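U., I forgot to send this yesterday:
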Amino acid sequence: MTNRDHRHVELSGEEASGRDAEGSTLMPMLVAGLVLIVIGALGVMVFV
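Result:
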């Protein structure tokens, strides 16, 4: 066996997880949650 038969693959944590390093999936959920909280607070203030 030569060195060509065994090749080592080195992956970073982001590559190994398969997650897009540039895109964040939590940010849209955070913004949507904050918008819903603001709408709910305004609704409560209107009726109180």
